[in-house]
User: Fold this.
Amino acid sequence: MTLFDVEKIRQDFPILKEKIRGKDLVYLDNAATCQKPQVVIDSIVHVYSHDYANVHRGVHTLSVRSTDKFEAARTKVKEFINAASDKEIIFVKGATEAVNLVAQTYGKANIKAGDEIVITAMEHHSNIVPWQMLCEQTGAVLRVAPINQLGELIFAEFEQLLNDKTKLVSVVHMSNALGTINPVKTIIQAAHEKNIPVLLDGAQAIPHITVDVQALNCDFYVFSGHKLYGPTGTGVLYGKQALLDAMPPYQGGGDMIRKVTFTETEYNTLPYKFEAGTPNIADVIGLGTAIDYINAIGMPAIAAYEAELLEYATAKARAIKGLRIIGEAEDKGAILSFVLDKIHPHDIGTMLDSLGIAIRAGHHCAMPVMDFYQVPATARASFALYNTHQEIDVLMNGIESLIEVFG
Amino acid sequence: MFDDLRDLYQEVIFDHNRNPRNFRIIDDADRKVEGFNPLCGDRLTLYLKLDGDVITDASFQGSGCAISTASVSLMTEIIKGKSEQEAEALFKQFHEMTTGKDEHFNLEAIGKLAVLAGVREYPARVKCATLAWHTLDAALKNQQQAISTE
Ligand SMILES: Cc1ncc(COP(=O)(O)O)c(C=O)c1O
Assistant:
């Protein structure tokens, strides 16, 4: 049996009591964004009701209080991913902004015409387009490591792409379209042997896998707070201090400077150098609360429970005639992407919605993955710590019924 | 089980999805335009044969959801024999019906297409129904480049 009490956990998420088209909500679109526990919602209300003022600016009591809470959230993030220092935690608005930040600062300073950037064929658009933009600006070349039919990175081919011209490897830790968990430790070792830094896109991995950036030895790690039971508009760029120190700033403005005259500006120290302007104070504090919430349950317990859900769902899905699972990697997180014979994913999405079931139907911001499997789109059920076996039964019954209706 | 959806997925729609009409290529087409809905990945190519300003033949190829397949299948049936102006008028009627701006669309003029009126209640699916017609509009205006609903 599972280590934690899912029914008790469900009580923490008020939205799970919603009725959708008269039915109990079955929320299986967690890879797009996950729902928020009451404590996170309350903490945002609490900030605005009791602790709110601008950070890093005032001597007055409220400003000190909000600064303390904001910086406490940074320490929580640092501990959550086991960074070496608070200085390595940059708050941004999401994984997308974090990748763009690295591309436009580290990338512009270190990547020149003819240099190469290596990604994989399973990346989210947010780990493709910022590099294409950088390539356009610099004349660098984007190289894409292929995947096999199971949706796994073909490691030998990835390794072959690494050469003297490779200046950065940027790969997804866990794929949002396939669920694949990449062998990131091996990837990082291979790249580091050639002195190539590695960025990991942890947007999907962060709510499902214990992340230790020092054990991984990655150079950059990015994720979004909203996929970690935290508020939207929050995200984290982790970077090794030496790399961040050497990088030029991203945006200019308040907070990121130490001294400004009209002839010269001296930049602030880390992490503030990369946090120009008033940050998303209340939501970052909410992200800190989300991390407390997850820690109280325990990441290993969450991972074990979700693995069990995925196994249960996969076995049921395999038993449905005409259903094809897209993404069957050996090492996989709680995502079930699938297509049905002759039934378009959008019809699946609309039909399941009428039963109160929220899944995603589309290309999942990973059009190259859809091209690889030669499907226009897939349907995707993605699981979180509050989902139940019974909800998976509702989903599978729904799929079987709609296959019948379509005939 | 899917009672709530009866307005959206009428039997006619399932029928056209299973057996799309005019699903073929017209080799000597006078107009050929591609339509694409990047949100869904729905893709179709519309072929028209014209005699003066009369559409003498219409066909399509491509893949999409049941709504978009039924919509283009029904459209190719209904526009055959119509003049370009009549087809454009139908497009306007259809647009009004599906986007719900006008409750008083001309039911008689729209005929069989009325089975698609249900999409009005499903904003996420309106583009599935209108893709065919936007593609037709481009074809009638003799635009060569692919059109996109986004
Ligand atoms: C793998 C992956 N990377 C990056 C992102 C981008 O995250 P955000 O939109 O929060 O910036 C997502 C979100 O869907 C994702 O799944």
Q: What stands out?
A: The two ends of chain B are 33 Å apart (CA to CA). Residues 84-99 of chain B form the longest helix (16 residues). The domain at 3-142 of chain B is CATH 3.90.1010.10 (Sufe protein. Chain: A). The beta strands of chain B are 31-37, 42-51, 54-63, 147-148.
